[in-house]
Every structure is written in C-alpha cells, then in structure tokens.
Design the sequence.
C-alpha cells in the first residue's frame, strides 16, 4: 500500500476545509477569500515570469485590467453582449494577446530596462481606461455582468439557492468558481515548472549564455513566459471583476503592480505554493486590519480622521517589513519555510572510516 506523504495529506485536508468554508463563514470572510484567490492566480503568473525566468515586470496591473475590462465589455452593454462564459475565455485570450504584442520587447530587453518598459504599460493603461469611456466607463468605471455557465448564474437569484440549509448567494457561488480556477492554475503551473519548459526558464534565470549554449531558444522562451503570465493575470482580472461587481481605473494602478511583486517575494520566488501564500498574506492583511481597526493600536478605521494611519497604509508597512525579513533570514520565502517544515533536511550520510592494516 502506497504511503501518503505529509504534503499530500496537508493538501487534501486543506481542500476539504476550503470546500466547507461557505457553509460556516459570513460574507466578509468569503470576499476576503475570493480576493485572495484572484490575487493568487495573478501572483502565480507573475512568479512564472519573474521568479522562474528572471524577468522583472512592473506592468502586471495592466494585464489584470485587460482581463477585467475585456470581460465587462465583451459580456455587457455597450459591447457585443456575448455569453459571459465566452466573454471570460476571450478576455483571458485578449490578455495573452496583449502580452504577445509586448513579448518582442520582453524577448530582447533585460533587467531594470524591462521593468521600466513594463512600467510604461501601467501609465498607458490608465490613460486608456480613463479616456475610452465607451469601453471602460471612464472615471466611474462599469458594473460587471454576472457570470453564467450552463444556465447556472454566479449571482443572487430569486428564488434563492439553498444548500444544506445555507442560502447560497453570489459570494458562496463565486467561492467554488474561484477554487476551481485556482486549482486549474496551480496544477498547470506546477506541471509547466516540472517539465521541459520549466527547466528551460530556470536555465534562463541562472544564465542566458549557458542556456543558449545548451540549445534553449532564449528569445522564444522569454516571450512565451510573458504571454503565459499575461493570460494568468487576465484570468485573475476577470475573477476580481466578478468579486467586486464593479471596476474603476484607479484600482489598476502602479500600487497594484508593486503589491504583486511583494506577493512573490514574500511567498518565495519560483514557488507556486509560495506565490499563493504571499498573495493571501498581502491581500487579506489590509482587509482584516480594516475590519478590526478599532481594536488595533495606532490604526484608524477607514474614513476616520486623526493622527493614526489607515489600515491600508499600516498593512503596507507590515508587509514591507516582511519583505526585509524574508530577504535577510528566509530567502526561500514562505514557500521555502513550509518545505523545510514538511520535509526536514536529510542528515548527511557518514562514510565508513578506512581501516588501516
């Protein structure tokens, strides 16, 4: 009989626990979980680009916006009014197309220069989102059409859906959609990293000269990593739009790109599980601090005036300190820390001493 390892047992227990949450948690905690799952999908994509292939990107918010606004425009009015499921798939493809159009630059520009080039995408996206009012709604943004798959709507319905005595509204339904999407992204990213593309991307990160000498087409793999990362970001943008039910341009700014970089650094570069953990930490921390601001010292409730700092600023200070601690003491991030806990290092094997005649 095959023995189940600690990592597999912990994963199975976590999956069962996550599936049971909608039956016990209120709407606030379900929303925190939804935003965390959407952030985890985007962080996994950025980790493939920056953590695995070593390409610095400050424009992740742009591809999130392409996915979110692409879905809203394709499924809504004004717009083509496509079925929401089709609009969701096309929005992800649209983000991949945007990444593909930028990929020639990503295939040739490196380091901080690539970071500056991707930073330009954020400012370009802000300009388009504010001025293309027919598509984006301008400063006021747009409401998000609910997702519908096979006649099942991920929104409030009348009569309400009741499962085991628990009313299932929009948050409960979107919770399971988020779980399915996160699981699909998780396993696809892990399989990609364990296969030949993952080894090629890791070789690019370590040394492009050595990778090229081994026969890795450097420009093609750098461009492919950018496209895949953009598609993951587009999927995250769609889920964020569905969870918010309304999107505005201000959300998709430079601060959001910085948040995603913080997620992968805190979680651990090159780790799918670490990117997920970092996304949960960075996303949930300001929301939880905002809810319990009246019980925390030096933190003001949202909208309050005074000398205390708001929960969002306090959260940024805390995960800024977390980045410093990770870089100094836990270079592998939360993912590396968990791996050491679950799989302790194997003690070295002592070689027998040679006996003298």
Sequence:
């Amino acid at each position: 009989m095959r023995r189940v390892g600690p990592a597999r047992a912990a994963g199975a227990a976590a999956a069962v626990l996550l599936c049971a949450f909608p039956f016990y948690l209120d709407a606030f905690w379900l929303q925190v979980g939804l935003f965390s799952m959407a952030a985890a999908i985007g962080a996994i994509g950025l980790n493939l680009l920056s953590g695995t292939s070593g390409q610095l990107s400050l424009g992740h918010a742009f591809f999130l916006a392409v996915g979110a606004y692409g879905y809203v425009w394709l499924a809504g009015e004004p717009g083509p009014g496509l079925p929401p499921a089709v609009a969701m798939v096309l929005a992800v493809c649209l983000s991949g197309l945007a990444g593909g159009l930028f990929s020639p630059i990503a295939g040739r520009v490196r380091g901080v220069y690539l970071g500056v080039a991707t930073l330009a995408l954020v400012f370009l996206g802000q300009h388009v989102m504010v001025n293309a009012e027919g598509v984006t709604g301008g400063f006021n943004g747009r409401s998000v059409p609910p997702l519908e798959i096979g006649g099942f709507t991920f929104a409030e319905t009348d009569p309400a859906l009741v499962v085991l005595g628990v009313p299932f509204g929009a948050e409960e339904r979107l919770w399971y959609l988020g779980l399915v999407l996160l699981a699909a992204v998780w396993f696809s990213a892990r399989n990609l990293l364990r296969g030949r593309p993952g080894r090629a991307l890791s070789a690019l990160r370590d040394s492009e000269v050595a990778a090229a000498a081994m026969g890795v087409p450097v420009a093609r793999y750098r461009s492919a990593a950018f496209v895949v990362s953009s598609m993951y970001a587009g999927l995250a943008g769609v889920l964020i739009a569905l969870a918010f039910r309304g999107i505005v341009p201000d959300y998709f700014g430079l601060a959001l790109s910085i948040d995603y970089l913080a997620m992968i650094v805190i979680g651990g570069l090159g780790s799918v599980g670490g990117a997920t953990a970092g996304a949960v930490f960075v996303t949930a921390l300001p929301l939880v601090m905002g809810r319990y601001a009246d019980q925390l010292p030096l933190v003001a409730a949202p909208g309050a005036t005074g000398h205390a700092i708001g929960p969002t600023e306090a959260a940024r200070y805390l995960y800024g300190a977390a980045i410093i601690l990770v870089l100094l003491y836990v270079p592998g991030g939360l993912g590396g820390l968990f791996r050491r806990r679950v799989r302790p290092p194997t003690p070295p094997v002592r070689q027998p001493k040679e006996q003298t005649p």
